[in-house]
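Blackboard transcription, Thursday session:
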Amino acid sequence: MDVTIVDYKSGNISSVINSLKEVAKDKVNIEVTSDLNKIKSSDKVVLPGQGSFKSCIDGLNSINGLIDTLSEFTLYTKKPLLGICVGLQMFADVGYEEVETKGLGWISGKVSKIDNQDGKYKLPHIGWNQINIAKESKIFKDIENNSHMYFVHSYEFIPEDNSVIAATTDYSSNIVCAVEKENIFGTQFHPEKSDKIGLKIIDNFIKL
Amino acid sequence: MLKNRIIPCLDVKNGRVVKGINFVDLKDAGDPVEQAKIYSDGGADEICFLDITASNENRDTIYEVVEKTSKKCFVPLTVGGGVRSIDDINKLLNCGADKVSINTAAVQNAKVVEDSSRKFGSQCIVVAIDAKRKDDGWEIFTHGGRNPTGINALEFASKMEKCGAGELLVTSMDKDGTQSGYDIELMQKISSMVNIPVIASGGVGTLDHLVDGIKSGASAVLAASIFHYGTYSVNEAKQYLASKDIPVRI
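(Written on the board underneath:)
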């Protein structure tokens, strides 16, 4: 099996690579690339994302044909894709970090700044928070409700259709922290930095 | 609910772990990769490496340490010490660091903080503030606490927040190495002033000091000696904080 981590020169993806390699051992071939043909032929794709919504979308746009290839992979061939952090946020129609920026539009919704309630909540939301599993998701197999995951973000994905929500976390309000829509998976938290329990989520994704 | 973080810090020199007492008198004690692994297995919420390698020819040793550690530890890894430029930050992130802490360079040129937080995201930019009491305030120092700057710590903290720092790592130089507890007043002042998380550092000798640090408003507490010399394990520290009704990840 081939799993591709999309390398679009946006942010730091070494931890994502390390964690996938750790889980995959020698059973799965992990590619880190922006090569469109390699992405097309792979069985699964991981879409990481760090920095701002805009910088990540700009990064995808800077590689000719990448967004079309990813959309085809996800929406037509319907192979599994996992978005992490801004990788998940980009599923939305629109993001409001820095400036209004068009998203991938794979899952209807928007990405807005977390309400810090006049300074009551510090931003970024950094650290370990518990997830409330909202629906049975394949990537949460053997993951207990209220498990701790590592977060670092200031913006949240607000989907139009609540049925895509796989988990929420409590910070200022119930923030969407995992989504599942058919073959599209996403986590706002960083499974690659969430110790053994996070690696289990990556393992679940690889084993889909 | 967001949990308070406990961050063991390892001082690394020429690729080996040491721990400074008041920034001098170093004792050698082990392999940073193994130490970091012990901490992460023991429940550390993050790991922090402070590179105190002085000579330029040995500077690259930290990259190797970070690379090896990031393949074994799957909790966030912060690396600081000698970070001067965007290029240094890029190299550390590529080796597997999740956050980089900037001290001297942030004081000398705030643009480094602005540019790097824009390029890599605020989430990976930590500004380390070494502060010492002076008159009725605090003055910040650079170069591992050697050079006074005349700059007021509170004003600097506020400025760094505006420049895009994601977190502030605040070390009291008066307290560092004394094991007499954090400078609570300093932590309170900075935590209440900024809207980004503050990591309290410098002076931990007992588990009650960690409790006091969190109660001061810090989002995370950093400690080196109490963990490094085995006085307490990270898990013992967390159990103790939990017994004092402080939310931690157990």
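Lecturer's comment: The two ends of chain B are 13 Å apart (CA to CA).
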